[in-house]
Specification:
The chain has 171 residues and is mainly alpha-helical. The chain is built from six helices and five strands; from the N terminus they run H-E-H-H-H-E-H-H-E-E-E. The relative contact order is 0.11.
């Protein structure tokens, strides 16, 4: 039992194993530094108790799920950070080079817009964007039909595990 958080090591380890299996099954990798990753998982559990959801442990959560949807782990910025820097903002998820020890995770600039910009965007769109005015392209997996809105298609389809080259721009 961790005295600071009140969360047992067994609970942390069970969630870590679950996340590891889910990540690998979806073509992602958790940070190979086991102790570092355990503390991130412990922080997710603390945020679960605190807010009722897994807010990113490296960002300041508002405590309002609607406001924090973009930073619920895995956050909306994970894939862009992995593609550009080889790790997500908190370094829970890492790319192949970091996993293999060929590269170290480094500081990553914050992609999340300031709260004032997020509030303005939510007000302007009422939570939705009209078709044709999407801020990001929509990618479609040609194998299974999975759709995702992001700057670039994912490295691996989270549904069927098809590689990035099997995605086409949908919208």
């Amino acid at each position: 039992m961790n005295r600071e958080t009140g969360i047992s090591d067994a609970v942390v380890d069970a969630l870590l194993e679950k996340l590891l299996l889910e990540a690998e099954a979806s073509g992602y990798h958790l940070n190979p530094d086991r102790e570092f990753t355990r503390e991130l998982v412990r922080s997710l559990l603390v945020n679960q108790e605190r807010y009722g959801y897994w807010a990113c442990p490296c960002r300041l959560a508002a405590g309002d799920k609607a406001v924090d949807l973009d930073i619920i782990c895995p956050c909306d910025y994970r894939d862009a950070d992995l593609n550009e820097f080889g790790a997500c903002f908190c370094a829970l998820y890492v790319g192949q080079e970091i996993l293999a020890g060929k590269k170290q995770a480094a500081a990553i600039p914050e992609r999340r817009p300031p709260a004032s910009e997020r509030r303005a965007a939510m007000s302007a769109t009422s939570g939705t964007a009209p078709l044709g005015k999407l801020s990001l392209p929509v990618w479609r997996c040609k194998v299974c039909g999975y759709l995702c809105a992001r700057a670039d298609p994912p490295e691996v389809c989270p549904i069927c595990k098809a590689k990035r080259d099997r995605f086409e721009r949908f919208i």
